Every structure is written in structure tokens, then in C-alpha cells.
Amino acid sequence: MSDSNSAVPAVDRADAVLQVLASSSEPVSPTDLALHTGLAKSTLYLLLTSLEQRRWIEKKGSGYVIGIGLYMLGCAYVHFDNLQHIFRAAAAEFVNAHNEVVQLAVLQGKEVVYLAREDAHRPVRLVSDMGTRLPAHACALGKALLAQLSDEEVLQLLPQELVAITDRTITRHDILLGELATVRRSGLALDLEEVAAGLNCFAVYAGETPTGRRIAVSTSIPTDRLGQKREKAIMQAIVRVAEQVKQRLSTRG
């Protein structure tokens, strides 16, 4: 359940239901929703009816899933200050030149949230759809965004225990702070198989939107497609993507 001290408990209840549905890959039954949210069944059924009427959720068989109405509202997040258009215009050039994916993300608490992705022209694609979350300490996008904060702010933001996703994930705060210092100097953040074995990621801070959202862009490439020469070209190119995004954002400010 959400914070019981909230001044709007009805919103908390709706959020609790939506959080459960969003974290499930299949329809969730009312019984399971009641179990996970702690809501009384009478309250839950009234809430489900209201959410379904707004198309925030949809009935699938004997359960519920996130609805098209909620998706449309969520899309407004990247459309509001033309962020998605600005990103795609810059990312398309990178994809055409290097045939690798480009991703856009924002920092939310201790996690990175993916906002958009421009795919490479390859049959195999990465699972980084809009709304996907990753621990900020583990990925290049997170490091690029955390580097915009002071060390004190980073330590306050991140949990005391940094979870390892692979055996290369940084799990010590002092080592992470040292890497963030390097990112501040170079402008480039790296994830060397820290999120997925055999995958390297390069990220750059791309500025702040007119509404105050700090964003970063990245590319993720299998290590078997990276030689020294190509890696250097990729790094330079993702820096250019970030500069283009930043420049276009500034002209709209």
C-alpha cells in the first residue's frame, strides 16, 4: 500500500492497484489485487469499475491489465516539451551512421526510467521500452545523471546497499563516487557489462528540459561488435547526440 499519511487516500488506492498491474506481465485477478494492495474487496471493486470506465485499466479474461487511457496520459510526459521529437531527430543520425540503438532516460529517485528509444536496423532488439527502470548506480545512463549531483546528494539518494545485477556491477559507494568524478571530468559515463553480460553502454548528460527534467542519452552495444576504433567512434557520436539534444532544448527554453 501507499503512504497511509496521504491527504488523498483514494489516489493512494488507485496508485496501489496500478503499481501491481504495471509490475505484472499477465492479467491480475481481483483476488490477487486485494492480496497485494490490502484493500477490502468492496472498496477494490468500486475502484476497478472507476478505473475501467476511464480506460486506465482493461478487463482481460478474469483479470485486469493497464489500459490504453493510462498509456495515452503517460505519453504526454515526453510530448509536453517536444522532447520525443527532439530526441528522435538527433538519434536518427546516430542510428543511420552506426546502426546501434539510442536511448533517452530521466532520473527518478534511485532509478533510471527510459523515456524513448530509437532502434537500430537489426532483427535483435534490446529490452529498454518506455517506462523500463534500472538502478541508477548500475547503468551508464544513471551515472551520467547522478554525476550532475553532488556526492552528498548522491549518497542521500541511493540506498545503503547497492544491488549487484552482474558480477561487474559497482556495489561500493566510494568506488561509485570515484567513477562519478571521472564522468564529471570526461562527460562520458560507462557501463561495462554491469547490467548485462556481453553488453557495454555509453551515456552522456543531455541537459535540462524547459520543465526542469534532467535527461541523458545512451547507446548499448554487444562487446563482440566493439573494437578499439569503433568504440572511439561510438563514444564521439553519442556525445554529439547529447549536444544536439541539449542545443535543441535550449532553443525552446
Automatic annotation (TrEMBL):
Pfam families: HTH_IclR, IclR_C. Residues 8-68 form the HTH iclR-type domain. It comes from the Bacteria. Keywords: DNA-binding, Membrane, Transcription, Transcription regulation, Transmembrane, Transmembrane helix. GO terms for molecular function: DNA binding; DNA-binding transcription factor activity. One of its GO terms (biological process) is negative regulation of DNA-templated transcription. The keyword Transcription regulation applies. Residues 69-251 form the IclR-ED domain. The chain crosses the membrane at residues 63-80. This is IclR family transcriptional regulator.
